[in-house]
């Protein structure tokens, strides 16, 4: 067997408003996972964990609370979705990346389209480890706020995951007066919250170069990575608008 490799990289990336932030990337080929963390312009700490073994990706956002409006110091959210092949480079390739020019401010070579996801199912934290062992660590602060999608749940159930960890959330069809939180005037009413995040820079594809040997035979070899940027918007049910104060008309 190939010995497990671990790597940690720090890259400087430019945020949409022009500020520069540092992103940390970790790869562990032994547990076949990658994690990436960055602080956004509004101070939120966003983490993406890709668990290749279970085909699961976990987004966590730690959002600074508005203390003067009765919120706690920070609010934690976890969004769990299916990890597709070729979304991110494999963990063993990431573990081989080496830090070059750490002071360079990087910008992604490719901007991938914004993905809008309707998170209509809640995940039970205490059972979530069956879906991915990383949920226990990554989502510990978000025990009551772990969301996924019905179509991803179907995929995992077919793989044999225990369905009792999932609970379908109320939908607009169940509650006809359920509004989007930004349109809802009452802070204590349930509504559909929206949260957007962006992964500014991540290694999304391997690059291959061709070489020719003395006999003229052409072969290809890995010769680098391609970097991408991708944004996500998650819509999900909250029992009261107080849990979604960022989603207001500005």
List keywords for this structure.
mainly beta, 14 strands, Oaf_C, OAF_N, Out at first protein homolog, Oaf
Write up what this structure looks like:
With 250 residues, this protein is mostly beta strands. It has a domain at 6-177. Helices cover 8% and strands 46% of the residues. The protein contains three helices and 14 strands. The strands form two sheets. It has a ten-stranded mixed beta sheet. The chain has a four-stranded mixed beta sheet with strand order 8-14-13-12, with no helix packed on it. The chain is globular, with a radius of gyration of 20 Å. The termini are far apart. The mean pLDDT is 90. InterPro entries: Oaf, Oaf_C, OAF_N. This is Out at first protein homolog.
Summarize the SSE layout with pairings.
Elements: E1 6-14, E2 20-28, E3 33-39, E4 45-51, E5 56-64, E6 74-82, H1 91-95, E7 105-106, E8 110-119, E9 121-123, H2 134-138, E10 146-148, H3 150-158, E11 166-168, E12 179-180, E13 191-212, E14 218-238
Parallel strand pairs: 1-7, 6-10, 8-14, 12-13
Antiparallel strand pairs: 1-2, 2-3, 3-4, 4-5, 5-6, 9-10, 9-11, 13-14
In which range does the helix fraction lie? under 10%
Beta-strand portion reads over 45%
DSSP strand tally: 14
Radius of gyration: 20 Å
The helix/strand series, from N terminus to C terminus, equals: EEEEEEHEEEHEHEEEE
Quaternary assembly: single chain
Regions with little confidence, pLDDT below 50 for 5+ residues = none
Mean of residue pLDDT? 90
Number of helices: 3
Specify the structural class: mainly beta
Apparent shape: globular
């Amino acid at each position: 067997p190939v010995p497990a490799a671990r790597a940690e990289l720090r890259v400087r990336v430019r945020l949409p408003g022009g500020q520069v932030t540092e992103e940390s990337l970790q790869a562990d080929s032994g547990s076949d996972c990658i994690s990436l963390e960055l602080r956004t312009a509004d101070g939120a700490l966003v983490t993406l964990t890709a668990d290749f073994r279970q085909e699961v990706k976990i987004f966590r956002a730690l959002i600074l609370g508005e203390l003067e409006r009765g919120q706690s110091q920070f609010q934690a959210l976890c969004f769990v979705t299916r990890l597709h092949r070729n979304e991110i480079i494999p963990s063993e390739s990431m573990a081989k990346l080496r830090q070059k020019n750490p002071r360079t401010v990087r910008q992604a070579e490719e901007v991938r389209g914004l993905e809008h996801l309707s998170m209509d199912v809640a995940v039970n934290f205490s059972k979530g480890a069956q879906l991915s062992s990383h949920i226990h660590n990554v989502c510990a602060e978000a025990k009551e706020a772990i969301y996924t999608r019905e179509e991803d749940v179907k995929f995992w159930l077919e793989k044999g995951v225990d369905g009792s960890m999932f609970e379908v959330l109320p939908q607009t069809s169940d509650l006809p007066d359920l509004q989007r939180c930004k349109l809802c005037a009452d802070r204590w009413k349930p509504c559909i919250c929206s949260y957007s995040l962006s992964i500014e820079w991540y290694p999304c594809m391997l690059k291959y170069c061709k070489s020719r040997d003395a006999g003229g035979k052409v072969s290809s070899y890995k010769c680098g990575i391609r970097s991408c940027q991708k944004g996500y918007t998650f819509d999900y049910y909250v029992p009261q608008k107080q849990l979604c104060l960022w989603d207001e008309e500005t």
